[in-house]
Design a protein that fits this description.
The chain is built from 12 helices and no strands. The longest helix is centred in the first third of the chain and has 33 residues. The N terminus and C terminus are likely disordered.
């Protein structure tokens, strides 16, 4: 079976159009924040300014890379600010619902290049995986285990990305071919990434990034906004699950969230804009830096038992092996010039 569908043409959207969109988004979010938050919102900024400062960088990372704002918020809150893991995870879901949501609106409205079929076939698994993970897995795992698993997967992806760019750096702008095998892989990546996202509010972006870039040889400039959209779906699902099913969205997480909302409303769409101006080499270098910081901070700041250390090493080895297999497989290698004309996505 072959499934048709065409990604957005690989053309950078006009800068000023994205700037205007981002200004409108920021004004709308900021106005809603003032109207509904009132004095409590202003007091929250004064009381939780370290979180607001953290999300200046976190929102730029969330909108402009495949890592997600939670990849900054969760480790900083748990490692530096001593916020309990369950509260940090819920905060990451809540703040990404605003920041990543704003970035996604900017990306879609301005027709930033996206592999829409990865979203179409990956999103159902994302929704199922996140909801199941939030309810069934996250409450029963220790913080150190969650942090180590996430760091191990990031390190594995970084290693495989480094290998793949030296083994075969060529990329195309979409998945080719796209048949039943590829659809199954996308659905599986969505499910696995959703399960990881339910644990730390990020993970879907990392898994799908690895599959698309390493396995299917899709260009990082297309994959990055694609994973932003997928992580937004994961974030909205996780936040809705916590609010409507688990029912734990209350103080002090609400106050932390109010402190960061005006920051991410500006930062995340700005990150998406910056990403459209970056070369694929620059995007990869940013990922290398983020992965290195995550790895070193985990080794230094996360306490772990001998068993957890062994698990950490085992996951790195296993995930690295999977990534290297994808990176060196011949099935999706790009021959010649990978950039013929492409039509706009529906």
């Amino acid at each position: 079976m072959t499934v048709t569908g065409r990604p957005t043409a690989l053309a950078r959207p006009p800068v000023w159009r994205m700037v205007r969109t981002n200004i409108v988004l920021a004004v709308v979010v900021f106005g809603a924040w003032l109207v509904f938050g009132g004095d409590r919102a202003l007091q929250a900024v004064a009381a939780h300014w370290p979180i607001s400062l953290t999300m200046v960088f976190g929102s730029l990372v969330g909108g402009g890379t495949s890592e997600g704002g939670g990849a900054v918020a969760f480790p900083v809150l748990t490692k530096v600010l001593s916020v309990p893991a369950d509260q940090a995870r819920l905060f990451a879901f809540a703040i990404q619902s605003v920041g990543m949501g704003s970035a996604t609106i900017s990306i879609v409205f301005n027709r930033v290049p996206i592999e829409w079929r990865a979203i179409r076939f990956g999103a159902p698994g994302v929704v199922l995986g996140v909801a199941a993970s939030c309810v069934l897995l996250a409450p029963h795992l220790e913080l150190a285990t969650i942090r180590l698993l996430f760091t191990a997967i990031l390190v594995s992806m970084g290693l495989a990305l480094w290998i793949s760019r030296r083994y075969d750096p060529r990329r195309r702008d979409w998945i080719e071919p796209l048949g039943s095998r590829e659809i199954a892989v996308l659905a599986g990546a969505g499910l696995v990434g959703g399960l990881l996202s339910g644990l730390a509010a990020v993970g879907e972006n990392t898994v799908m990034f690895a599959v698309l870039v390493l396995g299917f040889r899709v260009c990082e400039r297309v994959v990055t906004p694609t994973t932003v959209v997928l992580l937004t779906i994961a974030t909205w699902t996780g936040f809705a699950t916590h609010v409507l099913v688990i029912g734990d969205f209350g103080p002090p997480v609400v106050d932390m969230w109010l402190a960061a909302v005006p920051v991410v409303a500006i930062g995340a769409p700005t990150g998406a804009l910056i990403a459209t101006r970056m070369s694929r080499d620059a995007i990869v270098r940013v990922l290398y830096v983020l992965i290195s910081v995550e790895f070193v901070s985990t080794l230094v700041l996360v306490p772990r038992s001998e068993g957890q250390t062994a698990l950490f090493a085992l996951v790195i080895l296993a995930a690295s092996a999977v990534c290297v297999v994808m990176a060196t497989a011949r099935r999706y290698r790009v021959a010649g010039d990978p950039r013929p004309e492409a039509s706009a996505a529906p």
